[in-house]
Amino acid sequence: MIRYVGRRLLQSVVVLAGVTITVFVLTALLPGSTARAILGPKATPIAIAAFNHAHGLDRPLPVQYAVYVWQLAHGDLGFSYLLNESVGQLIGERLPKTLVLLTLAYAVALLVAVPIGMMQAVRRNRVEDYGITAVAFLLYSMPAFWLGLILIIVFSADLSILPPEGPQGGVDTYLGQLPALVLPVLSLSLITIALFSRYMRSSVIDNLVQDYVRTARAKGASESWVLYRHVLRNSLIPLITLLGLSLPVIFSGALITEAVFNLPGMGLLFWDAARRRDYPVLLGVTLVVAVATVIGNLLADILYATADPRVRLTGS
Q: For residue 256, is pLDDT > 50?
């Protein structure tokens, strides 16, 4: 196990290096420039050249990347010239809000998707299964911003029972703004429920035809006992891997959700940075998401091996 984790950590470093190189090069190739975005469209070429020289933006791209990696090694994620604040401080302020949103969305998705997937598997090819499948496909194919707008129109504009804007202020104030969390969490979790329920349905169907299920039934165990004591645990194993792999997808949905509901988290920070060409913030947020994804995948692999004794980690 230790050798396996060490090998995965080494692979994770390679992945993170590839992510930073790719994003760094792509941001450098984007039209426009940081100097133009900060100094404005009327800035003279002399002013732009002076800005680039003062911040090292006129150096060769490999040199700029080397300086960026050196700063990362010392815990410096860069500086936002537009917001006049360090990227690390900006992310530190916004990250807890996004974590609250993602945690609640994941919790709601799992609590709803697991029983729905099990029910679909038990009632396979019946009216309930077809109906839920149609709704799941509809939700999964629906853009996140469109679903958010529909929820705002229905629950805020028409029914006036929930606020159209996400909670503002620090995370410590969220307990007093619980109604404002409902629509953002619902918008993000509905799409996740559609994804998880489909995987859960397929996993339960696969386990229902296994030998251990037939053996339990032959011993006289009730269907509910077989389903909840045997099938459920084994069916949850694929979801463990899915939790790690779906993190980038869920975060991309959070980006749109936070923009729609004006929730000041990492997603809205990334959205604003993309519109303003605030490249240091784009790089910082991308790196944090890449690190979270790598850690999520590593934890998913370890939990998968722990939950299923049949799995053997090569080289462990």
A: yes
- How far, in Å, CA of 203 to CA of 303, rounded? 17
Residue pLDDT, tens place only, 209-220:
888 888 888 888
Question: In the chain, which residue ranges form alpha helices assigned H by DSSP?
Answer: 2-29, 34-39, 45-54, 61-73, 87-122, 127-141, 144-151, 178-208, 211-218, 223-225, 232-245, 247-260, 266-276, 279-307
Q: Yes or no: say if 201 and 239 are a contact pair by the CB < 8 Å rule.
A: no
Residue 141: what pLDDT?
A: 84
Please enumerate in sequence order all residues whose Cβ is within 8 A of that of 132, keeping only pairs 6 or more positions apart, or say none.
Answer: 116, 119, 120, 197
Q: Is 157 exposed, middle or buried (0-12, 13-18, 19+ CB in 10 A)?
A: exposed
Cβ(27)–Cβ(282) below 8 Å: yes
Q: Give the whole-angstrom CA distance, residue 200 versus residue 239.
A: 7
Helix axes 279-307, 266-276, angle to 10 degrees: 140
Residue 85 DSSP label: E
SS3 state at 79: strand
What's the whole-model pTM score?
A: 0.78
Domains, the chain, with CATH or none: 2-85 (no CATH), 88-307 (1.10.3720.10)
> Which residue type sits at 237?
I
State how far the Cα of 7 lies from the Cα of 3, in Å rounded to an integer.
6
3-state secondary structure of 80: strand
Residue 277 near residue 37, CB atoms below 8 Å: yes
